[in-house]
Design a protein that fits this description.
The structure holds two protein chains of two kinds.
Chain A: H1 7-24, E1 44-45, E2 54-55, E3 64-69, H2 76-88, E4 93-98, H3 102-112, E5 118-122, H4 126-130, E6 138-142, E7 148-153, H5 158-174
Parallel strand pairs in A: 3-4, 4-5
Antiparallel strand pairs in A: 1-2, 3-6, 6-7
Chain B: H1 20-31, H2 49-63, H3 68-79, H4 94-117, H5 127-137
The chains are: A alpha/beta, B mainly alpha.
């Protein structure tokens, strides 16, 4: 029994290896958002091409998605068809054109189509920073009280939509 | 003179504040804030566009009268403690901060126990053992 004490370092080492092995499976680029369950930051932004933009107070009332995109963003065209599908399913998708030239964004949307209910231009990036955005695309699930409930970093895939976002929105819609 | 000493300065001349005291504070605050895009650089070191925006934001806050702590908190409110290159002492990080001290204390405790358990005094020889030693050594003793 006393001999077994020599196993203690071996066991500790094995535990350390297990912790490190678990760490290797984690994605270090995933940054936890502190915005979850907080109200949307206050903003009031102009639209693109002289169209009306929107303010943070305009989007409450119904659960929706708030999607940040940019014409310079490489992953955004990949996500674009999903946004059309989501909008077609009846979920309002609001867009914020982040850190972008509004003219370039208008051209980009003319080419790819516009799935957004409203678009707000954020050329100074300040609204994005208020949302804790690190890049585009990022998408927030906002409930009808205007509170942020979830943040998706990176393009929305079909699996993200059917597995996470759609069930969450369905639940938010049924909330009193 | 200082130009050649800092050839890779990320802070652009256009970003810098005219007041050297405020600029020095902005540099110090920026050096403690993580560039959220590049992760292992501070916003003071990074050329990323978002780091530029955050540097400008820090300078705006300082010019607006924020203390260094308030300017830092402004970004912590948006990006969480993650933006701090030096993590604060809290529930999630106590092991990180105290870990080395705990390991050291554990090792020291182990050594103390080992030293205590080790027999210190050699027991005196019994009479028959003394006789045996005398016989083996003979007259050389």
């Amino acid at each position: 029994m006393k001999r077994l004490i020599f196993l203690v370092p071996v066991v500790l080492f094995a535990a350390l290896i297990a912790v490190f092995a678990h760490g290797l499976t984690q994605d270090p680029s995933r940054i936890p958002s502190v915005m979850i369950d907080r109200p949307l930051p206050t903003f009031e932004l102009a639209g693109l091409d002289g169209k009306p933009g929107f303010a943070s107070s305009d989007v409450a009332g119904e659960p929706h998605l708030l999607n940040l995109f940019a014409s310079w963003c490489a992953a955004c065209p990949q996500e674009h068809p999903m946004l059309f599908q989501i909008a077609a399913s009846g979920v309002p998708v609001f867009g914020i054109d982040w850190k972008d030239d509004p003219a370039a964004a208008a051209k980009w949307l003319a080419q790819l189509g516009n799935p957004y209910r409203r678009i707000a231009a954020d050329p100074t990036a300040r609204t994005g920073i208020d949302l804790g955005v690190t890049g585009v695309p990022e998408t927030f699930v906002v409930d009808k009280h205007g509170r942020i409930r979830y943040k998706q970093t990176g393009p929305i895939t079909a699996a993200d939509w059917s597995g996470t976002l759609q069930p969450m929105l369905a639940k938010l819609r049924s909330e009193a | 003179m200082g130009l050649w000493a800092t050839p890779t300065l990320a802070v652009l001349p256009s970003e810098q504040l005219k007041d050297p005291a405020l600029e020095a504070r902005a540099r110090a605050v920026s050096a403690g804030l993580r560039c959220v895009v590049c992760q292992n650089q501070s916003i003071d070191d990074s050329d990323a566009p978002l780091a530029h925006d955050l540097r400008v934001l820090v300078r705006e806050r300082i010019v607006a009268g924020d203390t260094d702590a308030q300017a830092t908190q402004y970004l912590v409110d948006r990006y969480g403690h993650y933006v701090l290159l030096k993590p604060p002492f809290e529930t999630a990080t106590w092991l990180l901060w105290l870990g080395p001290a705990l390991v050291l204390a554990g090792g020291a405790g182990g050594i103390v126990l080992w030293l205590r358990r080790r027999p210190t005094a050699v027991p005196a020889l019994a009479a028959d053992e003394e006789a045996e030693v005398a016989r083996l050594l003979g007259d050389n003793r």
